[in-house]
Design brief:
Among the domains are: 99 residues, Fumarase C, Chain B, domain 1 (Orthogonal Bundle), CATH 1.10.275; 196 residues, Fumarase/aspartase (Central domain) (Fumarase C, Chain A, domain 2), CATH 1.20.200.10; 75 residues, Ribonucleotide Reductase Protein R1, domain 1. It is 55% helix and 7% strand. The chain contains 24 helices and ten strands. The strands form five sheets. The chain has a two-stranded antiparallel ribbon. The chain has a two-stranded antiparallel sheet with strand order 3-4. Strands 5-6 form a two-stranded antiparallel ribbon. Strand 1 and strand 2 form a beta hairpin. The longest helix is centred in the middle third of the chain and has 38 residues. This is Adenylosuccinate lyase. Pfam families: ASL_C (PF08328), Lyase_1 (PF00206).
Length: 581
């Protein structure tokens, strides 16, 4: 296992997946023809009976007998295809979205909090650290390894508490530094686990988006812009309701998706990633008792912002996760737009508008040798569906947590106030003032009625699945990019369709007739074209009989289905201007 530097603070582990055969129940060579490899710590126990001499041995009722095999985690035994079949395409998310990533960011937050306390004059028990001590603490972040994470997991086996295990790990590590050893009990000072976790999750999302997701999104949008510009001039028959409609250009239709995706990408980047650091129930209870002279809300805000996050002052035990819901729903919308593109291109390939570059050795069908299937776009579509299913659950579930009564009222007002400043659907200030008065009038009663502020842990287990939705999204983006790289435009097929649909010129003809006062233009074109075979000759004959100025008539006679594309060419050529806004 080796590490490749990704940034100044994160080390990327390069994992080697393995398959370990059990010595107790050896697998026959017909099932697994490779020698035994060094095992990892993860096992899945299948059934209870000892394996037979052949894995396909059947019982008397002709059913396969269950086997007892200890499987080690590998690309073949992973339950999720992200960790198996598709590992090579999503592994760059590992430093951020994995258990390793979560542990790393917890370590970072704990250390940064200790360093922050050393800068608070009122906390004399934690004096300012020397440069050597600061360097030592920073090295615990910079040099954090998978072995360190495994050590924390070993501690967790005893504590049965993942965040406390991080605290104990840091205390053990820092015993060797005399200066830090004096303040070991200030690790995790006045913190609830969620103080650490919510910041860790926020940093995981922030860094995963900035380091992995946004760059791939940008590559995708750039590829669409290039495809649009390269084919800006290529006329294409439009279809509305599946029927021939006014022509466009291939490039302009691709440009639509580039602009739509760029808009959502921009919205995603503008989602404010929030963090809280207000203790067990959001009130700094323990902080105030220990150091009553410290302005703890101000300290918490400074600390959260120092991590590159925005501060959420009104919370219960947990950060409200509203920003996560907004982020995941925005990601779903990006995915929906891409899914729309995948399906359109799939249809264009079916119509023959695109050919696909073949690769030597690849097979499209196990029985039909001629097949070249649009597998990249199909793979993308399928993974976008899986991604959106997971992201939708995250977005719907995370903002809901039991018994957060007291902070919820103030948090609601705070969120509404921010919404009124940023949304186009602005809440009138008169209504905002009425809401504020209502909140304040109810506050005393809630303090009397609710002596505690509680939460549940359903968000904790759900948050561990952030990488699933994001991972399947990344896989889909790469599949679409791969598919775009194989496309070849078949202009002959596009022209063939256009030349068979001269009826699409009914629209410009009846529009010009309207301009020059010809009675019932729509009805006359409807009688000529609706449900009838229309040819170049029949259209020209109709135009010749029109009582309109000669110049207008000549312009109509010059029209063909391939030239009747309006401003489509220019729209496609200038797509990058729209994308960069």
């Amino acid at each position: 296992m080796e590490f490749v530097a990704l940034s100044n603070t994160v080390k990327v582990p390069t994992f080697t997946t393995i398959f370990h055969t059990s010595t107790t129940h050896p697998l026959p060579n017909t099932f697994f023809p490779f020698p035994s490899l060094r095992s990892c710590a993860c096992k899945a126990i299948i059934s209870t009976n000892q394996i037979s001499s052949h894995p396909a041995q059947k019982s008397n009722n002709n059913m396969l007998q269950p086997h007892s095999v200890d499987f080690e985690l590998s690309s073949l035994t992973a339950l999720s295809p992200l960790d198996g079949r598709y590992w090579g395409k999503v592994k760059e998310l590992t430093p951020f979205m994995s258990e390793y990533g979560l542990i790393f960011y917890r370590v970072l937050v704990e250390i940064k909090w200790l360093l922050k306390m050393s800068q608070i004059p009122e906390i004399i028990e934690v004096p300012s650290f020397s440069e050597d001590a600061k360097s030592y603490l920073q090295s615990l972040i910079d040099d954090f390894s998978v072995n360190d994470a495994l050590e924390i997991k070993d501690i967790e086996k005893v504590t049965n508490h993942d965040v406390k295990a991080v605290e104990y790990f840091l205390k053990q590590k820092c015993q060797s530094n005399a200066e830090v050893a004096k303040v070991l009990e200030f690790f995790h000072f006045a913190c609830t686990s969620e103080d650490i976790n919510n910041l860790a999750h926020a940093l995981m999302l922030k860094d995963a988006l900035n380091s992995v997701i946004f760059p791939v999104m940008d590559n995708l949008i750039e590829a669409l812009c290039k495809l649009a510009k390269d084919n800006a001039h290529v006329p294409m028959l439009s279809r509305t309701h599946g029927q021939p409609a006014s022509p466009t250009t291939l490039g302009k239709e691709i440009a639509i998706f580039a602009v739509r995706l760029s808009r959502e990408r921009k919205d995603l980047s503008q989602v404010e990633i929030l963090g809280k650091f207000a203790g067990a129930v959001g009130n700094y209870n323990a902080h105030v008792v220990a150091y009553p002279d410290v302005n703890w809300p101000h300290v918490a805000e400074e600390f959260v912002k120092s991590l590159g996050l925005s501060f959420n002052p009104y919370v219960a035990q947990i950060e409200t996760h509203d920003y996560m819901a907004k982020l995941f729903h925005s990601l779903i919308q990006f995915n929906n737009i891409l899914l729309d593109f995948d399906r359109d291109v799939w249809g264009y390939i079916s119509l023959g508008y695109f050919k696909q570059i073949t690769k030597a050795g690849e097979i499209g069908s196990s029985t039909m040798p001629h097949k070249v299937n649009p597998i990249d776009f199909e793979n993308s579509e399928g993974n976008l569906g899986v991604a959106n299913g997971g992201l939708s659950h995250l977005g719907m579930k995370l903002p809901i947590s039991r018994w957060q009564a007291r902070p919820t009222l103030l948090s609601l007002f705070y969120e509404l106030f921010n919404y009124s400043k940023s949304s186009s659907s602005v809440v009138p200030m008169v209504e905002m003032l009425e809401i504020r008065e209502l909140v304040c009038s109810r506050w005393t009663k809630f303090n009397q009625d609710m002596c505690t502020c509680r939460r549940d842990l359903t968000d904790s287990t759900v948050l561990r699945n952030m990488g699933v939705g994001i991972g399947h999204s990344l896989l889909a983006y790469k599949s679409t990019l791969q598919g775009i790289g194989k496309l070849q435009v078949n202009e002959a097929r596009l022209s063939e369709d256009l030349n068979q649909c001269w009826e699409v010129l009914a629209e410009p003809i009846q529009t010009v007739m309207r301009r020059y006062g010809v009675p019932e233009p729509y009805e006359k074109l409807k009688e000529l074209t609706r449900g009838r075979a229309v040819t170049k000759e029949s259209i020209r004959e109709f135009i010749e009989r029109l009582d309109i100025p000669e110049a207008a008539k000549l312009n109509l006679l010059k029209l063909t289905p391939g030239t009747y594309v309006g401003a489509a060419v220019e729209l496609a050529r200038t797509v990058e201007n729209a994308v960069s806004r």
